Amino acid sequence: MSFGKGNKDGKHYWLTPPNLYEQLRIEFDFDYDPCPFPKPDDYDGLRAEWGESNYVNPPFGSYIDKIDGKKKGATAWARKCIKEFKKGKRVVMVYPIDKWVLMLLDAGAKVKNLKDIRWLATEDMTEGQGTGRHIACFILEPENFKKKSSKSLKTLYDEQNLEKINIQQCLF
């Protein structure tokens, strides 16, 4: 389901195709949908108590909450999913993400959260402000890979006396 401006065709709500939902329902035995359609006027899936096995197809965008006036989107739904999971409930959430992420995960990538990185400027190696978003580190490592070094990137820069990097050397 989606809220907000919707697509160019003017459609704002997107429901799970029945055949996909049925496949997931058989596998996970859902007893609750915190994102029902049609949504009752006074219902809020982020504030409701969920069932034991939940199918979550949240808005594919963000909206302004009518009660607290705050913007709600995927992060709010993920937090609620985690909260319900920690209560011992099953949560199956569907949400669009970039294909390249799924490609890496399908290939066996492990993911590490690097938090908000303060990247270094190529011109003078000064630290930036950060992106305001967490950075995912995808690791594809063969089982027989022999670890050669556990040095940090900064240590490697220092050892090689790389105070400045010429951006031309980094371009393909």
Structure in words:
By secondary structure, the protein is of the alpha+beta class. It has two domains: 18-93, no CATH class; 99-170, no CATH class. The chain has helices at residues 18-28, 74-86, 99-106, 153-159, 167-170; strands at residues 53-56, 63-64, 71-72, 90-93, 110-113, 136-139. It has a two-stranded parallel ribbon with strand order 1-4. Strand 2 (63-64) and strand 3 form a beta hairpin. It starts with 17 loop residues before the first helix and ends with a helix.
Keywords:
single chain, 12% strand, 172 residues, 2 domains, disordered C terminus, extended, 6 strands, alpha+beta, disordered N terminus
Q: What's the topology here?
A:
Elements: H1 18-28, E1 53-56, E2 63-64, E3 71-72, H2 74-86, E4 90-93, H3 99-106, E5 110-113, E6 136-139, H4 153-159, H5 167-170
Parallel strand pairs: 1-4
Antiparallel strand pairs: 2-3, 5-6
Provide a quick synopsis of the model:
The chain has 5 helices and 6 strands, in the order αβββαβαββαα.
**Strand percentage:** 5-15%
The total count of strands amounts to 6
Shape: extended
The count of domains is 2
State the helicity in percent bands: 25-40%
| Biggest β-sheet description | 2 strands, parallel
Strand order of the largest sheet: 1-4
